[in-house]
Amino acid sequence: MSEEKTKSKDEVQLVVFSVGTEEYGLEVSQVQEIIRLLPITRVPRAAAFIEGVINLRGNVIPVVNLHYRLGLEQRKDTDQTRIIITEVQGISVGLIVDQVLEVLYLSRSALEPPASAGSVNDAAFIKGIGKLHERLILLLDLESLLYLNEAEAVS
Amino acid sequence: MDVSQYMDLFLAEAKEHLDSLNENLLALEKEPGDMRVLNEIFRSAHTLKGMAATMGFEGITELTHEIESALMLLKEGKVSVTPEVVDVLFRCLDTLDMMIENITEQGEQSYNYQPLLEDLRKLDNMRGEQPPAYPQQGEQQGEARQDQPMEFNEYEISVMHAAAKSRYSSYYIKIGLAPGTVMKSVRAFMVFRALEDYGQIIKCQPPAQDLEEEKFDDSFEIVFLTQEPAAKIYQSLEKIAEVSVLSLQPIDADRLGGDDSNRIEAAHPEKTEMPEKPASQGAAQHDSAGGAAIRTVRVDIGRLDNLMNLVGELVINKTRLEQIGLNHRITDLLEAIEQMGRLTTDLQNLVMKVRMVPIKQVFNRFPRMVRDLARELNKDVRFVMEGQETELDRTVIDEIGDPLIHLIRNALDHGIEQPEERIKAGKEKTALLRLAARHDGNNVIIVVEDDGRGIDIEKIRRKAIEKGLLTGKEGEYTDESEILKVIFQPGFSTAEAVTDVSGRGVGMDVVRSKIESLNGNIAIETKRNAGTKVIISLPLTLAIIEALLVGVGGEQYAIPLSSIDETTFILPEQIKTVKNQEVMVLRGTVLPLLRLDRLLDIPSDNKGNGELFVVVVRKGERRVGLVVDLLVGQQEIVIKSLGQLLTGIRGIAGATILGNGQVSLILDVNSLV
User: Fold this and answer.
1) Homologous superfamily of A2-144 in CATH?
2) Which of B29, B40, B46, B322 does the annotation list as catalytic?
3) Rounded distance, CA B74 to CA B64, Å?
């Protein structure tokens, strides 16, 4: 316990998952739980990246189609598909991911701002890029991911 | 004493006292001679002062002290109750309200109330200018009663005799509390606790229940039986903080009369004939039986919401069990579920009732508002409120205040004429403004009605055309009831000049959308020179509703039963097209049809050859047929919010969870069609 505490100062603990071919990470503090895919009710007239809503033990929670939001090819649901329930500013939202890979510590010094990434087209939703040996982990910025700009909401 | 822990209590109680002060002051203005009301005001102000002093809020204490002095002048009849005096007092109350509102963790904010103090002191100069308006009987009576010695009934006297036989002495104790003590009932309780260590309390005045509910001023009296010496009792009582013993005297049971013939036979000390423990309670209950006090518990609204949610879950699970029973045709199970169904319905009704609050909570602030506005606008208005006891769900109550304020302001500003104008029009000088609430089935109807000049339909017609809300042609042909609906459109206001009160062009459309967001309806009736009547209809509760489940594109949607007129079906070839709009003929009238799948932009299952199901819904006066793939059935549903991320989607009112655990969306017919 005390070890974790000292670690947390210069390290972040991430939940790492894959969407499409890339690896993404979310800070553990933003993750409430990880569940298997549940039946999703679509919500007409909602923003296009909202896949729908699910019933999580009596609470109705919106679920985001991350593939769509990140501009990746269409998702294929498999046995590994999971919904990560996150919490941002008191709002619970589910993110559909292809696979949850691991929970790991990453030194803050291994985190770089997204600008240096260059080719990444979804930079708007990325708040940092973590380097771990040969792997690149894209740190998702939930706020900008969910706070839809109006133009997109209409389409 | 650290008082921070009492902060919430203080704020809540101060608010209550202010409310009661406002209410009673209004009553006093109407009935200036009513001593009872004046005493009530005095008492509230006094308590408020005490509370503030205990908490160390000097500003509030000083202001209330001055208010008290001013009230004293009224009470003594040295100054009579005029609107000017009441105005000053109201301003003081407003300031107090502000001061209390602004109290923070750091304590009181400084606030300049000096001008008010001067106004209050000016009242003092008015003394003698008017003769005393009324005699002072009420007060004297009150005083006299206070000083009356305690009276004992036969039972109590016999108890004291019996006690004397067992070498118990009876004492009369008068306990005083320091002025402004908070939580008086706790002090009383501590006194009781201390005494019960030494003997028995056989009577207290006021009765125990009143003490518990803090229905007493600063003192109470007790009759106490004990074998301990008086000094010891005295000491133990004096130890309690903020409590002082005003009087402690032995009572001579013999002098009280009654049967003392076998007094000498007090020969069985071991078999003490002491009254059993309930004596004190017995006496208290006896005393309060006539009062029939209402026993209440204050509950945090959050807990009630949780309870409501749990009951909601229970309803969902019951529905689920029902489906299982039906699917597997298990008769025993179905019977048991039926039983459970009755229980959940009862439970649901009960919880709903618990969440109900009288609309009085909202209405309360209006008399004051109407009075102030009427004075400001120089209008003479009699304000009548009816049905204040009508109960509504808490969530509705919280939302309904603002729209009502708006409607009342409108009526005062636009509807009601100046007195001279009324007289010219051959009306009574005093206008009538009526606010009424009543139950009507599962709805509550609220009416705001005035007998003012009514709405000028022609003016609205002109204005609507001018603002482009109606085209010239439309404007000419549209009938009155249609024209009235224009009022509810955004950006419409007829007030010639923007006043402080209303006429800024935001208004009725906001009122309407608020009411509609509560699943309610609003309508206007008006008659030239006779007045205007706004009728609001609201559902009793927002939490659980009856809905029809329909299937579209493989998913189920819930349509609130309250907006459905009927369901019917139609063959595709019976659909006709008028001006690109699909219609059907239903019992001779033309009904526009809307395909729900197209409306929601979702794929439909329907191949287009079989029968089509039509749900006839109502939006205001208009009826529309919604074409759906499937009618699933009628069901009770629990409304859940879609959350912040998905608010404001037109056509969707919320979500519910079906018996199979799936989420189903609730359609909002009003914004959908």
Assistant:
1) CheA-289, Domain 4 (2.40.50.180)
2) B46
3) 15
Domain stop point among B107, B141, B175: B141
Maximum separation of any 2 CA atoms in chain A, in Å: 49
Helices (H), B469-537: 472-477, 480-486, 508-517
Q: Does A91 touch chain B (CB under 8 A)?
A: yes
B46 is catalytic: yes
Domain termination residue (choose one: B358, B374, B400): B358
Judge whether residue A1 has pLDDT over 50.
Answer: no
pLDDT tens column, B306-328 = 887 788 778 778 887 888 888 88
Question: B353 and B378 share a domain?
Answer: no
Does residue B410 have an active-site annotation?
yes
Shortest CA gap B649–chain A (Å): 7
CA dist., res. A19 & res. A70, Å (int): 9
Is residue B243 within 8 A of residue B187, CB to CB? The reply is yes
CA distance A10 to chain B (A): 33
Helix (H, G, I), strand (E, B) or coil at B76: coil
Number of Cβ within 10 Å of residue B360's Cβ equals: 15
Exposed, middle or buried: residue B335 (CB in 10 Å: 0-12, 13-18, 19+)? Answer: exposed
pLDDT at A2: 46
Given B68, B474, B482, B555, the catalytic residue: B68
Global ipTM = 0.83
- Burial of residue B45 (number of CB atoms within 10 Å: 0-12, 13-18, 19+): buried
Chain B CB contacts of A46 below 8 Å: 646, 649
Distance to chain B for A129, nearest Cα, Å: 27
